[in-house]
Amino acid sequence: MLLTVARVGRAHGLRGEVALDLRTDTPDERLADGTVLGTDRAGVGPLTVVRTRVQQGRWYATFAQVSDRSAAEALRGVSLVVEDETSDEEDAWYPHELRGLRVEHVDGRVLGEVVGLEHLPAQDVLVLREPDGARTLVPFVRAIVPVVDVPGGRVVLDPPGGLLASDAANLVVSDETSGGPDGPDEDSAPDAAGPDGRDG
Questions:
Q1: pLDDT computed for residue 199 by the predictor
Q2: pLDDT, mean of each 10-residue run, the chain (200 residues)
Q3: What order of strands is seen across the sheet that includes strand 191-192?
Q4: Pick from 47, 103, 122, 185: most CB atoms within 10 A?
């Protein structure tokens, strides 16, 4: 199974350094010097990590195969991937573990099915297909997704009014739904109801 470790952002400087948008909770391990990473784009990679650094909370990397700004710019949008079936990361899940899970309301009503996981700038979102076929993006934060029970085949939602298409008439705008300052903070990971999950 290919797992995404990071997505390459902007080129930084003139010597091939790039910014990274992390998709792993263990970047020190996944991006250690000398690590060889695959990519999701044909003709690019594998890439060997020469060094990484962190500046103001943002990760930057230099790869052996990328020596100038032009080459770095060509990498923008490329996902760095590894082949891995196991992970010790807590409170994270592989997209393939979430797809197909039944979505239940905290009151027990069935709300639909998880059809994907997307990484947006503000936070990760679950892609929910509601019973009428509507596609809804659900912020993947503890306040809204309090339970992820992969062995039980379900996730439990406690959605604010109007988040779901079936409840649009009761729309409530909050930090969790708008990606505001209190949305994807330290409470961004739901509780697991089973073995540790993972996402790269």
A1: 46
A2: 81 90 83 88 85 90 92 90 59 73 90 85 82 88 85 87 74 52 46 43
A3: 135-139, 124-129, 110-119, 102-105, 154-157, 147-149, 191-192
A4: 103
Q: Among candidates 12, 59, 5, 61, which has minimal Cα distance to 33?
A: 61
Q: Which two tokens stand for residue 196?
A: 């540790």
pTM (predicted TM-score): 0.46
User: Is the bond into 95 cis (omega within 30 degrees of 0)?
Assistant: no
* Residue 29 to residue 134: CA distance in whole angstroms: 39
- Pairwise CA distance, residues 43 & 51, whole Å: 22
* DSSP codes of every residue in 129-184: E-TTS-EEEEE-STTT--EEETTTTEEEE-PPTT-SGGGGGG----HHHHT-TTSS
The amino acid present at 147, given as its one-letter code, is: V
